Amino acid sequence: MSDLIDMLQAASRDDRLADGMLYRKAAEEIQRLSDELTKWRKGLNSISYDTKNAEIQNLKSKYHELLYQVEKNFPNESRHETALRYIRQAESHDNGPEKSEQPKDTGA
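Predicted structure:
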């Protein structure tokens, strides 16, 4: 990059730019740097995609592990909703569901 700056400074002091040689060299250097940046970005994007995909799969696995710990869900609730209810009750130190709200067997 310093070579490019030196070339452009030399061109500003020297009026012999008619042949366009310095311009071509500068354009070639700019294109080379642009190509390197493009390659770097592509590599970074593929790493980011692979990393994010692995994170998503890991989270799905953990969610399903947690969800399938619910053997019986409450009437009119999904396993997710019942698991959420259990967690909220445990976190609030609630004494548990009222007797009228007994979970039903999911058959799992």
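Summary: The chain has two domains: 1-57, 68-108.
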